[in-house]
Every structure is written in C-alpha cells, then in structure tokens.
C-alpha cells in the first residue's frame, strides 16, 4: 500500500505546474577560520577524567565548483584523578568534490607528542550518492568497499542544513570521513531543533571576529554517532556532538559528549575569507 501511495504521489506531482513548485535554495558555506577554546563541561565519578582543556582550529575554503577543503587541529590536555596529564593532538585535512563523488583525506594523531595513528586515502564513486570505493595509502595500501548510501562530510553538513530549512527534525545517515583506520562507517542520527531567527538565539560571544553572526539563521543540532554494528535504534551512541549550526556553515556553542564526560567548545575567533568565484571544475 505504501508503494502504491508513493507512485500516486509521483503522478500527481508530475501534473503540477513546475512554476508553482518552490526551488530549494542552494546550500553555500562561507570560507572561514574558527577557533574554539575547550574545557570540561561535566564528568561522572567513574570516568577517571578530572580536567580537560584545549583548542580546536578549523578552516574551510573552496566553493561548489572547485570543491571544499577542510582542515582541523584538535588539541586536548586531559588530567586524570591522580593528576597525570595526557596530550592528544589530532590533525585532519580533506578535500571533497561537490557533488560528493570524491573525497581525499588525511588524518594524523599524536599522543604526548608521539605519533599514534595515521590515515590517508581517496574515496570515490560514479554518482554523488550510494556505495564508494576507498584507495588507502595509510595505514597500509589496500582497497576498501563501502556498501550502502554513504555520505561524505561536506555532503552530510549540507544535508543537515537542507533538512533544517525544510523543517525536518531527524536526519539518519551513514557517514564516512576517513577517520581512525580509514575504513570505518558511522551510523548517525541528527536531531534538528527549531530555527533560531536572526537575532533571536543566544548571543555568540566573540573576542575577535564578525559580530553579526547572530544575524545568520541557525538551528540547534545534535548528532549521535554509532558503530556500524549498532544503529540509531540502539540506546547508547559512541559519542554525541551538539552545536548551533548557522546557515553559512559556521558552528558555535559546541559540546562533545563521550558518555562518562563531556567537553564544551566556546567560539573565540572567527575570520571570514574572501569567497573565490566559480571559474573552473574540480581538480
């Protein structure tokens, strides 16, 4: 019965005057550099975490013609109950074609300044959705097949914005970003809150940057990440990221919940880059 209803809907839609159907506004992200100061938000008694501080530096550049490039450095210093400190330094960079047919990625992790993990490769497919093939260079050369309808990172972020504009409250997606061993898919479930009209949301406190970010429409977002053997129907995600997602791609009011402890990120600096015009196809 459901299939019949869908077919009937398609027929009715084909009879509607095309001029009466609103065209979805293209999602365009503003090239920018954002700096977040990290601190411990809360911790459970059994977590072993007594304190966290650190910083995230994130950059986005490019456009829909040339693709979007992202880079991030995520440094945290974690103190346990005995007062011992551990420094984790995560460095990532990627380039993603728009639409999402190719993703180049590189990730390096250091623990107390010693290399711990490194991943590098290229994911590609014929169409902008569906399954993909990953050619890994690190940690070892091999080919990985990703089954299902896979989302790449920029594609996923754009899908969240589009869903938010449409008034949807949930977006389920299988996400591949090249992290960890370079062959892992996360099952994600994104909860989208009601739009914060320009000027109506909490003021973004900036020590340096553009003061009118509060005038950009935004939504409260919460993304839960599950192992591929789990799913959004399972009770406990691996971790959860909550933030205020602005229509231009800028993130503020960041919170990362690891279950037994959570850290928050305060946007401290925001610098917009001049957007390059679309002149040439993706490299």
Net shape: globular
Strand count, sense and barrel status of the largest sheet are:
15 strands, mixed
The proportion of strand residues reads over 45%
What's the mean pLDDT score? 86
Please state the CA-atom Rg, rounded to the nearest Å: 20 Å
Tell me roughly what share of residues is in helical segments.
under 10%
Q: Distance N terminus to C terminus?
A: 46 Å
What structural class is derived from the secondary structure elements?
A: mainly beta
Ordered list of secondary-structure elements with their pairings:
Blueprint: H1 2-15, E1 32-43, E2 49-63, E3 67-80, E4 85-96, E5 102-111, E6 114-124, E7 132-138, E8 142-146, E9 150-151, H2 153-165, E10 170-175, E11 186-192, E12 218-226, E13 239-246, E14 251-257, E15 261-272
Provide a short characterization of the protein structure.
This protein is mainly beta. It has one domain.
Can you walk through the features of this model?
The protein has one domain (33-272). Helices cover 10% and strands 48% of the residues. It has two helices and 15 strands. It has helices at 2-15, 153-165, and strands spanning 32-43, 49-63, 67-80, 85-96, 102-111, 114-124, 132-138, 142-146, 150-151, 170-175, 186-192, 218-226, 239-246, 251-257, 261-272. A hairpin with a 4-residue loop joins strand 13 (239-246) and strand 14 (251-257). The protein is globular. Residues 1-23 have low confidence and may be disordered.
């Amino acid at each position: 019965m459901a299939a019949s209803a869908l077919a009937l809907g398609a027929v009715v839609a084909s009879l509607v005057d095309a001029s009466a159907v609103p065209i979805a506004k293209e999602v365009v992200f503003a090239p920018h550099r954002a700096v977040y100061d990290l601190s411990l938000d809360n911790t459970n008694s059994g977590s072993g975490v007594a304190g966290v501080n650190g910083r995230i530096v994130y950059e986005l550049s490019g456009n829909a013609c040339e693709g979007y490039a992202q880079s991030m450095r995520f440094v945290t210093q974690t103190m346990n109950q005995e007062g011992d400190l551990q420094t984790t330094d995560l460095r990532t960079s990627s380039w993603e074609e728009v639409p999402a047919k190719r993703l180049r990625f590189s990730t390096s992790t250091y623990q107390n300044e010693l290399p711990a993990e490194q991943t590098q490769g290229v994911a590609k497919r014929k169409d902008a959705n569906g399954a993909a093939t990953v050619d890994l260079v690190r940690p070892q050369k091999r080919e990985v097949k990703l089954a299902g309808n896979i989302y790449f990172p920029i594609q996923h972020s754009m899908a969240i914005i589009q869903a938010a504009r449409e008034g949807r409250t949930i977006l389920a997606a299988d996400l591949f970003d090249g992290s960890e061993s370079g062959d892992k898919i996360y099952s994600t479930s994104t909860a989208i809150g009601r739009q914060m009209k320009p000027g109506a949301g909490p003021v973004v406190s900036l020590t340096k940057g553009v003061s009118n970010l509060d005038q950009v429409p935004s939504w409260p977002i919460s993304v839960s990440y599950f192992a591929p053997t789990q799913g959004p129907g399972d009770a406990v995600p691996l971790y959860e990221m909550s933030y205020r997602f602005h229509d231009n791609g800028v993130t503020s009011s960041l919170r990362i919940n690891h279950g037994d402890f959570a850290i928050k990120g305060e946007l401290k600096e925001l610098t917009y880059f001049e957007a390059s015009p679309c002149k040439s196809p993706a490299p």
